[in-house]
Amino acid sequence: MRRKGLACMAVHTVGTTDTTENTGNAGNTGSAAGNPGHPQQPGRVDLGPAAALSCRECGHRTPLGPVFACAECFGPLEVAYELPAGDPEALRERIAAGPDNIWRYAPLLPVPADVAEKPNLNPGFTKLIKADRLARELGVTGGLHVKDDSGNPTHSFKDRVVAIAVEAARAFGFTTLSCSSTGNLAGAVGAAAARSGFRSCVFIPHDLEAGKVVMAAVYGGDLVGIEGTYDDVNRFCSELIGDPIGEGWGFVNVNLRPYYGEGSKTLAYEICEQLGWRLPDNLVVPIASGSQLTKIDKGLKELIALGLVEEKPYKIFGAQAEGCSPVSRAFKDGHDVVRPVKPDTIAKSLAIGNPADGPYVLDIARRTGGAVEDVNDEQIVDAIKLLARTEGVFAETAGGVTVGVLKKLIETGQLDPSGETVVLNTGDGLKTLDAVAPTTGPSATIRPTLASFREAGLA
Ligand SMILES: *Cc1c(COP(=O)(O)O)cnc(C)c1O
Ligand SMILES: [Zn+2]
């Protein structure tokens, strides 16, 4: 069997603590800790429609708990549901009557039914911008939308995944929230912990952009820079989970990863609802670990299965930076394993050299008829400016990657511009000012006189 995803990581488990202070947790039974290889008492964990964890490789089911790898085959676990049956129109109405954030989809997420009443950051329901001017520049004739996740509480898509992980952390009785981060996740965890009453301690590569470091530190939790790449940070966190130091710690993207990942489904739900409960033809999605892309596909499939949208083919395209493009490389070479790389790109939020979900991304791109492409740093900067100039959206480097890749996919005939297309912007340009600062600035600096203005050639 081909080894996939998290199978390459060591399996560690975390015992839940019976400390429930700070987490606002009343329902913890203290028996939810998963421990692969050992019998486990099923906990009375209320995570709404989430029924169990199931292995993406062999289908083996495990009770809900803070585990991420299958006890049978070490494959990655994901949340399995008992989703609401019945009239799709009634479900659409129930969703539409919900709050203007991701909790409108609570019936489809691993969260308790009263989640919207708990203290959290309420991310989501960000703008879907009809991008006619960008479409004209790129030659898209079938309609182009930008899903702009810079509007989330900490200005990246990461607030979605963290909000779901927080509910799992409450349910399992964790008291500290943690993560390995390329920058945005650290800020999202810091803010969510502050709001929800957890301690936080987050880990980043030491050389991130100032905007990301400040955002991660300002919420008052502990922020630790690690001398190494993201992949070193991630390996360190795996070690911490296996050590007594990590007891009571919920690492949102490691031992809570199955729950965390589900937050990305809300991007699929929102895009379809905002299109009037329709599937687009093409989606262009950035790839760091590949989690977001795989869960967008999962969300779209659920909407079809529930009858919330009419079934039709859709294509998912993955976007990477050339300086960290292991999935794009494997796609182009026709491989189904992803060979790790050492990242070197200005798109630091996507700089994961050993992406856990890479093989699943390849499956989805191939199955849906999409592709995986990459663009270089110069093309990323050009695309940031193109999006800003045409639509008034200032994207971080990850948004430059998706818009740049969309342009390249059209130019190379890989994406049909007569289809309705959605391109994701997952972060805010204010966090990566350095990427554009050297080539952006005032048109002129003048004395405060009309003559001086005329001299500058701007009249
Ligand atoms: C984390 C992140 C992504 C996607 O990450 P995955 O690990 O692939 O889910 C995309 N854009 C930005 C800005 C991010 O911070
Ligand atoms: Zn398995």
UniProtKB/TrEMBL annotation:
Enzyme category, top tier: lyase
Compositional bias annotation for Low complexity: 15-37
Residue(s) carrying N6-(pyridoxal phosphate)lysine: 158
Entry cofactors: pyridoxal 5'-phosphate
GO molecular function: L-serine ammonia-lyase activity; threonine deaminase activity; threonine synthase activity
Single GO biological process annotation from the record: L-threonine catabolic process
InterPro entries assigned: Ser/Thr_Dehydratase, Thr_synthase-like, TrpB-like_PALP, TrpB-like_PALP_sf
Keywords of this entry: Lyase, Pyridoxal phosphate
Region (Disordered): 1-45
Protein name: Threonine synthase
Species: Streptomyces xinghaiensis
